[in-house]
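Tokens as discussed.
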């Protein structure tokens, strides 16, 4: 929880919000959130939210529903305002300026502007946090407050992330979208005046901003909402997998919103939710995507009188920085083997953060291509032809690879699961999905390919339909390979005689049967090729062909 010497403590007023959310986790189930209490003074407004479903990665949280009930994303729900803050109270420009002036500022240095903001690349390319000033129609203070965002509120976010990384000897920066002035950079603050109801709910805000074109998945949109409805709220998806394929790592558009009464209080917290912290299965995670080990920016009692019990594990640290003991969701470094973060999502690895000193090369995850899909027969080996490329960072760390079965009906035996190019055998026919993962010790990437294994001795059935005497006849072909046989069954009318003739690939008649009703013929020792079946009667004939590959 935030240090009460510097910040007001987050407090959730009311009964449990997610008191039962962890029930059934052992079976992979997550209970739907309990109906939360509304407290508009604290910004606890649930308009536009519905209990989350696992198929949308919202289990244990809430779905953000648009005006047509479409799902816009997932969220943990609104965060409450600090003690003694009523978000409904108008906030003057002077109050905002005073709040901004009181915030810690990151030290400027190589690669930053005078406010400590990282000047990264061309300011727009790649994964970034994008600042938006949003106001409902009727009010507009952009000219007065945009400079506060650029010089104080955004730099405070940078300070929180940078200071958190420094606790473990690391360095990290928040890459805002910036504009260059030739020698330095300035945070770009977009100016959006939306409808009068755009601030009524998080869903309204997202719907209208998406309609304005804010739809990029390589952005985390930080919305400074000039309104008095919420304190803070952010999107997050339930996914704690460790690799770069984590759902919170740029696979969905994500928004964070802070209303005027909570500027300088909620922004970094909601952006961290956008990055994937804190997952409920973390050692100190809570059901509602927070933590219980204080002091910590992401920790507070988010279920009221429920099972969460807050503990002061790091009592002397500043409560505005992340991850007490760095064992739940943010560790600037390599987690020790066997720890939670060594096998689960560490937001430090997010694409939306820049790791290391500015101006130095930034580590990029390996690029992986699992290769083309393959088709083989049972008993054969599939040749796997993967490709992996890397930027060589971190220096001295070799890239490791691993093949694994992602899905399929049987077992897979890899000749060498740790080689990019290898072979694999399969215990049963069917379609298998194989994954190739590459790691540079900090970041990892995966790609998949499929192997289709067919059994040449398995029967194959093809059904054709044709018209004889204005009736549709169903003709079924059954095949077996090698020393097996072809069986052709013709289902005809009970009152009309039909003649069925089967010709080999060379055109030779190899079977014929006549009569009413159902008639079958079997030919042994089929060869590879295309067979022709002609069904004829007094009203005409129908020809079907099928290719048999023993």
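Sequence:
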């Amino acid at each position: 929880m935030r240090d009460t010497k510097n910040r007001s403590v987050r407090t959730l007023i009311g009964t449990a919000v997610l008191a039962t959310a962890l029930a059934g986790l052992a079976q992979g189930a997550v209970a739907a959130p309990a109906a939360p209490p509304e407290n508009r003074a604290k910004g606890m407004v649930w308009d536009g939210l519905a209990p989350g479903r696992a198929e949308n990665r919202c289990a244990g949280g809430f779905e953000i529903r648009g005006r047509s009930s479409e799902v816009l994303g997932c969220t943990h729900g609104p965060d409450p305002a600090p003690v003694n803050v009523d978000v409904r109270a108008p906030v003057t420009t002077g109050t905002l300026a005073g709040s901004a002036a009181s915030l810690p500022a990151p030290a400027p240095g190589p690669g930053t502007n005078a406010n400590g903001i990282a000047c990264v690349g061309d300011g727009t390319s790649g994964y970034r946090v994008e600042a938006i000033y949003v106001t409902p129609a009727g009010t507009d203070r952009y000219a007065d407050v945009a400079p506060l965002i650029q010089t104080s509120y955004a730099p405070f976010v940078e300070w929180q992330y940078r200071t958190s990384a420094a606790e473990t000897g690391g360095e990290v920066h928040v890459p805002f979208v910036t504009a260059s002035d030739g020698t330095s950079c300035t945070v770009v603050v977009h100016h959006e005046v939306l409808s009068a109801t755009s601030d009524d709910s998080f869903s309204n805000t997202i719907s209208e901003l998406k309609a304005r074109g804010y739809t990029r998945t390589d952005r985390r949109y930080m919305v400074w909402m000039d309104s008095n409805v919420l304190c803070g709220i952010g999107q997050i998806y339930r996914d704690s997998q460790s690799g770069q394929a984590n759902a919170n790592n740029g696979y969905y558009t994500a928004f964070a919103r802070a209303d005027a009464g909570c500027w300088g209080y909620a922004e970094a917290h909601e952006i961290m939710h956008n990055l994937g912290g804190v997952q409920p299965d973390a050692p100190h995670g809570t059901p509602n995507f927070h933590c219980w080990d204080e002091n910590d920016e992401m920790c507070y009692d988010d279920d009221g009188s429920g099972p969460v019990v807050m503990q002061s594990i790091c009592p002397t640290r500043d409560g505005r920085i992340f991850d007490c003991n760095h064992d739940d969701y943010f560790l600037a470094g390599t987690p020790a083997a066997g720890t939670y973060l060594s096998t689960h999502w560490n937001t430090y690895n997010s694409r939306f953060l820049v790791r290391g000193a500015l101006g130095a090369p930034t580590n990029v995850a390996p690029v992986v291509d699992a290769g083309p899909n393959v088709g083989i027969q049972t008993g054969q080996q599939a040749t796997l032809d993967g490709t992996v490329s890397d930027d060589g960072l971190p220096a001295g760390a070799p890239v490791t690879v691993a093949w694994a079965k992602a899905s399929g009906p049987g077992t897979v035996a890899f000749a060498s699961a740790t080689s990019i190019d290898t072979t694999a055998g399969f215990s049963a026919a069917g379609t298998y999905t194989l994954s190739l993962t590459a790691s540079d010790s900090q970041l990892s990437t995966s790609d998949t390919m499929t192997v289709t294994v067919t059994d040449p001795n398995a029967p194959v059935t093809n059904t054709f339909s044709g018209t004889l005497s204005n009736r549709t006849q169903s003709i079924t072909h059954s095949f077996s390979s090698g020393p097996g046989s072809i069986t052709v069954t013709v289902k005809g009318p009970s009152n009309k005689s039909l003649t069925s003739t089967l010709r080999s690939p060379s055109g030779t008649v190899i079977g014929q049967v006549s009569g009413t009703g159902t008639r079958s013929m079997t030919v042994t020792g089929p060869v590879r090729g295309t067979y022709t079946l002609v069904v004829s009667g007094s009203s005409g004939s129908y020809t079907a062909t099928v290719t048999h590959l023993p």
